[in-house]
Design brief:
By secondary structure, the protein is α+β, with helices and mostly antiparallel strands. 19% of the residues lie in helices and 34% in strands. It catalyses: L-arginyl-[protein] + S-adenosyl-L-methionine = N(omega)-methyl-L-arginyl-[protein] + S-adenosyl-L-homocysteine + H(+).
């Protein structure tokens, strides 16, 4: 059955009504999932297999029949490991219907249908008894319910329920326990993702509003590839602390709780950020350990097992606190059933009161701006580019219209002497009580704007970063172009548009690790999981699932195999064209390697001589090393099959891109010529 669905178009700003199959969302979730990354995680798989074999052996040594409960079975991999290790029967629970169907197919293909029962339910709905989903309680509990924060996928409530209703007392558990680690650090780089910093414009120092300074910030965890944060960008103020452990073989409580680690400050500094990760012990003795520790904590970083389904966590303290070397400190972690948060006190404070509820944003800014957006607004070099561009075009009588979400450009324009500044789509404004006297805030759509809203003035400067909170892919910010077209009749004949143009760039790349999230697996630990590959491929083939996808490439090292290449230019001094714009051609491969896909990004030409790149921030090195803008996501087009390139000019990257003005989409196709 098909239904009409309203979908907001991030590029045109329109509400598009499209006919969708009832399976559309399923296909999108599967196509954009990272199941393949888990299957390619050899370290995880081997540790689980080893832990399962040990647990089965312990139960058999007691003379018991081995019954396994696998919650969140996914592909059924852990259940097949258990049966292969000697389990008598396994109940594999999977709530996501397409995944449960894939697991059933995989179990059957590997010949385990007689010993593995796939149950398509949430574990809390599973029943035990003669007429239930399970005939008996299990004596081994196997789970993979974890996310980067450990408990964010509801691990604690699931374990709590399982011990009450689904497993025997004294059961074995794989993993047996999990341990949370944390380190208090000072880091200007990371702190800029949480708090707006003072900004200087032509001798005027803009201070964040008190409400923002006092705000505890966004409550959600910031999960990143911490291995890509250089150690020189932060200063440890204390040791790596063991915060708490959870023993999964015993009854688990999801009740909120707090734990404290006491230590002496290693050095003086500003306590700002907590870096955190976890380990899981697959056995009671802690001999089989799977760790999420970042690569720079390894004695040999080359042995670090890369994974993207589990990363590391960054938590921001509610407020920056000065600490002195040798000072006794309490680092406190609190959790509810789904999340963690940290706080810091001095040890001499005997009455340590921990908030029962996690901190939340009270200034609204953290609800509107993402953490990368905070980093972008705090980027001094970027600010300097925009200020210099504005300085070169503004005049005392300029009437400016700003089109961006939560942008500081109107403030810069006012400080640089603009007569009147108006702006669209204002979600947050620095010092509104003062600035609203000089900046006219327009809460209307561009097509609704009239001269009356501008007090009879034509627009002499239309400006934008552009940034829109709804943008995911680089070209979604072309919404600025559609806004420019909507207000064309209100522009002065000699109006200046900033930025004046945007160019879409491409570069063929070899990823160090990111390719794993899209690579077929085939077999995993000796089991045929190809039905999973087939399911993902079917979803990728389902309409728009097979396109570029957004990724913050600063977290995922890659090597350029071609030179960066401009493929489409969008002239903002003109209105959006009526007809599609096509660009095709070839780019020679200059680097030798395995080409996994194509990276795409926008560069904005603010003025004739000032350009801002939202992709590569430096020229590609001779070895092909790339440095990416950390504030925006770039687009990645993955090839379905990889190709080795010689780099001697025998192969070319063939591209064909078409910008569709009516939809705002960019249709793209890439291929590689034969040598």
């Amino acid at each position: 059955m098909k239904t009409f669905c309203g979908r907001a178009n991030p590029t045109t700003g329109a509400l598009d009504w499209v006919e969708e199959s009832e399976e559309y969302d399923y296909h999108q979730e599967i196509a954009r999932s990272c199941y393949a990354d888990m299957l390619h995680d050899k370290d995880r798989n081997e540790k689980y297999y080893e832990g399962i074999r040990a647990a089965v052996s312990r139960v058999k040594a007691r003379g018991e029949r081995v019954v396994v409960l696998d919650i969140g079975t996914g592909t059924g991999l852990l259940s097949m490991m258990a049966v292969t290790a000697g389990a008598d029967y396994c109940y594999a629970i999977e709530v996501f219907k397409p995944m449960a169907q894939a697991a059933t197919c995989i179990v059957e293909r590997n010949g385990f249908s007689d010993k593995i029962k796939v149950i398509n339910k949430h574990s809390t709905e599973v029943t035990v008894g003669p007429d239930g989903d399970m005939q008996e309680r299990a004596n081994i509990l196997v789970t993979e319910l974890f996310d980067t924060e450990l408990i964010g996928e509801g691990a604690l409530p699931s374990y709590e329920h399982a011990h009450m209703h689904l497993v025997q007392a004294g059961c074995e558990a794989v993993p047996h326990r999990a341990t949370i680690y944390a380190q208090l650090v000072e880091s200007d780089m990371l702190w800029k993702w949480s708090q707006l910093q003072p900004i200087e414009v032509d001798g005027n120092k803009l201070l964040p509003p008190p409400a923002v300074v006092k705000c505890a910030g966004a409550p959600s965890v910031c999960d990143i590839q911490l291995s890509q944060v250089p150690p020189e960008s932060f200063t440890p103020l204390g040791p790596i602390c063991t915060m708490f452990s959870v023993d999964f073989s015993k009854p688990v409580s999801s009740t909120a709780h707090s734990y404290t680690a006491q230590f002496k400050a290693q050095t003086s500094g500003r306590a700002q950020v907590v870096l955190s990760w976890w380990d899981i012990d697959m056995d009671p003795d802690g001999n089989i350990v799977c760790t999420m520790a970042p690569s720079w904590s390894y004695s040999d970083p080359r042995t670090y097992p890369w994974r993207d389904h589990w990363m590391q966590s960054v938590y921001f303290l509610p407020a920056e606190e000065k600490v002195s070397e040798g000072e006794e400190l309490n680092l406190i972690v609190s959790h509810d059933d789904y999340s963690l948060w940290y706080s810091l006190t001095q040890s001499e404070q005997n009455d340590v009161k921990v908030a029962k509820f996690r901190p939340c944003c009270t200034c609204q800014a953290h609800l509107v701006w993402t953490r990368p957006r905070f980093g972008e607004l705090n980027d001094e070099q970027r600010t300097e580019s925009y200020v210099n561009a504005l300085r070169s075009i503004l005049k005392p009588d300029s009437v400016c219209l700003s089109v961006s979400d939560g942008s500081l450009l109107p403030i810069f324009a006012h400080l640089l002497g603009s007569k009147k500044v108006s702006r669209f789509f204002v979600f947050f404004c620095m010092s509104q009580k003062v600035l609203k006297l000089v900046i006219h805030l327009l809460g209307i759509r561009p097509e609704q704007l009239s001269l009356a809203d501008l007090e009879g003035n034509q627009i002499s400067v239309l400006m934008g970063e552009p940034y829109f909170s709804t943008s995911l892919l680089p070209w979604h910010s072309l919404f600025f172009w559609y806004c420019r077209t909507a207000v064309a009749q209100l522009l002065h004949p000699n109006a200046t548009i900033l930025p004046r143009a945007a160019t879409l760039y491409i570069v063929a790349v070899e990823f160090q690790d990111l390719w794993r999230i899209r690579a077929p697996c085939g077999t995993c630990e000796g089991f045929d999981v190809s039905p999973m590959d087939e399911m993902i491929q079917q979803s990728l083939d389902y309409r728009e699932s097979w396109e570029a996808e957004p990724h913050p490439l600063w977290e995922y090292p890659c090597r350029a195999l071609t030179k960066p290449w401009p493929v489409l230019t969008f002239d903002f001094t003109q209105c959006v064209p009526e007809q599609p714009v096509n660009s095709d051609g070839t780019v020679p491969f200059t680097g030798r390697g395995r080409c996994h896909g194509v990276a795409l990004w926008m560069e904005y030409q603010l003025t004739e001589d000032i350009t801002v790149s939202l992709g590569l921030t430096k020229p590609v090195s001779e070895e092909g090393a790339c440095e990416w803008n950390p504030h925006r996501k770039q687009g990645v087009f993955f090839f379905r099959s990889t190709r080795e390139t010689s780099g001697d000019g025998r192969e070319d990257l063939i591209y064909n891109l078409t910008f569709e003005p009516h939809t705002g989409d960019i249709k793209m196709d890439f291929s590689i010529t034969e040598p």
